[in-house]
Amino acid sequence: MNINTCIQCARCTSSCPVNRSNLNIRRLMYLEQISIKELPEKDQLAIWECTTCQTCSLRCPKDCQPMDLVLNLRKAEIEKGRIEESIIQALESTYLFGNPWQRAREKRIEWNKELNVRVIKEGEEVENLLFICCTIHYDTRFFNLLKNFISLLRKLDIDFGMIGEEENCCGSEIKRLGEEGLFLELKQKNEEIINRVKKKRIITLSPHCYNVLKKDYNLNTEIYHYTQFLYEIKDKIDDFIKKDSRKIIYHDPCFLGKQNKIFDEPRELLRLTTDNLMEFDQSRENSLCCEGGGGRMWIEKKGKERLAEIRVREAISKEAEIIAVCCPFCLLTIEDATKVLGVDEKIRVFDILELFSF
Amino acid sequence: MILVYPEIRENQIKRVSFELCVLAYSLAKRLKKEVGLFLLAPNAKDYLSSFKNFGIDKFFLYEESNQLTSSQIGEILSSLIKKESISLVLLPATIKGKELGPILATYFQKPFFQDIISLEVLDNKFKILKPIYAGKVISEILLERDSPLFFSIRPKAISVAEGEIAEPEIIELDKIDTEAKVKVLDFVKKLASKIDLQEADIIISGGRGVKEAENFKILEELASLLNAAVGASRAAVDAGWRDHSDQVGQTGKIVAPTLYIACGISGAIQHLVGMINSKVIVAINKDKEANIFKVCDYGIVGDLFEIVPLLIEEIKKLKE
């Protein structure tokens, strides 16, 4: 990142989805430029508001990467141990059990009793290695997603397997919370486990795993988000996917869309099942963040309307019946918002994979 | 002699004190020893009658109007233990008892067992049951007889049954000059009158299914009958029905009560993190597909507005 070329144009702050909070990135850039030793308390607390959606860095005309400044500031806070209890718990759990949800490692693939996905051992070979996110492993809400994906792969006669219990959290959120040391440890462990398996590609289910595996890991393999993989073989799946007549609106996950420019693949997949695909006013590069990233799943920020609620309101006003996502965090935050707004019977939130029925 | 240290707070004898008496009485019969009870209060005599049915042989009264610290009480108890050659000391596993145990054990250089749930005589030994790993495992410990030995007993581990009416001897202890390194000036009670979520034995939680703030009243009614605390899911807190301090979950409080009743909560992972270690989970939800049914011990598929009132009615009947 480059602080000194910042011209204080404030595009970062004006494009920031959480700019109604105390987070003012332009101001942080300025304070850094004048080398302030200790941030004012208000700004110090505000750095935990950031969802690391990266809009600021993408819009910066001088390529200053303001989001990286927030991450550096978080790193410094973590070093000093000045972090909220809920973050400590998530970090500790990741360190001890390999997942931020405080669940036992032994239960990581409990769902597999029913689905029987092949667990790949050292030296074995598989064409497609699945990297399944902690949240999908542990939250039974995602069972149908897994079930659909796996039966789809089986129908298409695709060779696949997974690492199983030994798999660790990808560390995406750990890194973005600023706990670099723990992230490096997770990365090293996962690289070791993944690299001892012969595979053609890795398919991730979460855009967060996808982003970090692709950009920060050394894996010498192609990394796919499942939407990219299915898009490549969409002609094959088109034959047996049933049509859904409901009106579906697609929400771009920041870690897939903005940060990796994967906009069309998920939409094309949705078109296999619906003729009624709708768009939010803010979509693609301009998509509104759901507030689930950057460790925000583990930090409570109260007092203002959640962004996911804004998203749900818009979907309702457009008379959409389903909000489709392809990220576990987007699913949880937006589904929560439908409950808070009391519209959970009117509008449903599904992962694209859940919408596939055969 | 077996000595019992009762818990008296705000002029009230806590139930655990009677539980200790019951345990002491049964041990005393087996070991052919006497039971003594130490009463420390400004008006210690007033409490005598409450203990008359527990087969206590000796009451040791220590009338003191000042607030004593644990180390001062430790000094008084130590001299009593020496003087009366007391062999077993039973303390309540409350804040006070947990503080006194180590002080006494250090003084006598003898073992102290914290927060045990059972103490029996087994030939020449004592058999102790003690939960470890936050209650996930119960360890069984055999202990050689020695004197004096110190134990703190978890409240509610022993059921109260009355012993016999003894003819107790009442001994007023001489005042001892103890040095207070810390002076207790005042006790300030937390303003909130409701039961603390993290300390509650039973929690009734409401979620999105409660539909509006007003409806939490029925959960509160059930809670007051069960002496339980009321919790909420994030959806209910976000909707403004409950305060954030009531929130159970990853970004709220992490709780592990004996009984957790989830009403109208679907069971998002965010919420589960906060309550999955509860001993018994009961879920009430209309949607039989709800996640919460995958983690609960007892699940009731139905409308909470029908089921909770039924529960209230039944519990009221049981209480009559």
Task: Spell out the blueprint of helices and strands.
The complex is a heterodimer of chains A (358) and B (320).
Chain A: H1 11-15, H2 25-33, H3 41-46, H4 55-59, H5 66-80, H6 85-97, H7 112-115, E1 125-131, H8 134-138, H9 143-155, E2 160-162, H10 172-177, H11 180-195, E3 198-204, H12 207-216, E4 222-225, H13 226-232, H14 234-238, E5 248-250, H15 264-273, E6 277-279, H16 307-317, E7 322-325, H17 328-340, E8 348-351, H18 352-355
Parallel strand pairs in A: 1-2, 1-3, 3-4, 5-6, 5-7, 7-8
Chain B: E1 2-4, E2 8-9, E3 12-13, H1 15-31, E4 35-41, E5 58-63, H2 70-83, E6 88-92, H3 95-108, E7 112-116, E8 118-122, E9 125-132, E10 137-144, E11 149-153, E12 169-172, E13 202-206, H4 216-226, E14 229-232, H5 234-238, E15 259-263, H6 269-275, E16 280-285, E17 298-301, H7 304-319
Helix pairs in contact in B: 2-3, 4-7
What does this protein look like?
The complex is a heterodimer of chains A (358) and B (320). Chain A contains 18 helices and eight strands. Chain A has helices spanning 11-15, 25-33, 41-46, 55-59, 66-80, 85-97, 112-115, 134-138, 143-155, 172-177, 180-195, 207-216, 226-232, 234-238, 264-273, 307-317, 328-340, 352-355; strands spanning 125-131, 160-162, 198-204, 222-225, 248-250, 277-279, 322-325, 348-351. In chain A, strands 2-1-3-4 form a four-stranded parallel beta sheet. Chain A has a four-stranded parallel beta sheet with strand order 6-5-7-8, with helices on both faces. By secondary structure, chain A is an alpha/beta fold. Chain B has a seven-stranded parallel beta sheet, with helices on both faces. A five-stranded parallel beta sheet of chain B has the order 14-13-15-16-17. Chain B has a three-stranded antiparallel beta sheet with strand order 8-9-10. The longest helix of chain B has 17 residues, at 15-31. The model of chain B has no long low-confidence stretch (mean pLDDT 91). Chain B has 320 residues and is of the alpha/beta class. The A-B interface holds A 86, 89-90, 101-103, 135, 138-141, 297-300, 302, 306, 332, 335-336, 339-340, 342, 344 and B 207-208, 211, 234-235, 238-239, 244, 247, 250-252, 254, 266-270, 272-273, 276, 291, 294-295.
